[in-house]
Amino acid sequence: TIEFLRAKGLQVTVLPASKTARELGDGRMANVVMLGALSTLLPIPQDMWEKILKMRIPKRFLEGNLKAFSTGREMMS
Asked: Residues 6 or more apart from 2 whose CB is under 8 A from it?
């Protein structure tokens, strides 16, 4: 559980990724919401993340997933 992890000295951030993804239009984008949040903790520039997303996500799903990624980043600020 979250309390167990915190008791072990780990930093735990809880985000409503599934709810956020549903609000953005597709609950399946929860993983991209979480990826956006994670991206704020790693030393990789935002434009590199977005470049990779554009390469890997089919065009018909790209707009929503870029919004999900951006939202995840915003949730961490």
From this structure: 12, 14
- pTM listed for this prediction: 0.91
pLDDT digits (tens, 9 = 90+) for 41-69: 999 999 999 999 999 999 999 999 999 99
- Cβ atoms within 10 Å of 18's Cβ, excluding its own: 15
d(CA 77, CA 3): 23
Identify the residue whose tokens are 């990779």. Answer: 52
8 A C-beta contact, residue 69 and residue 33: yes
Place of tokens 């780990």: 10
Angle, helices 17-24/59-75, rounded to nearest 10 degrees: 130
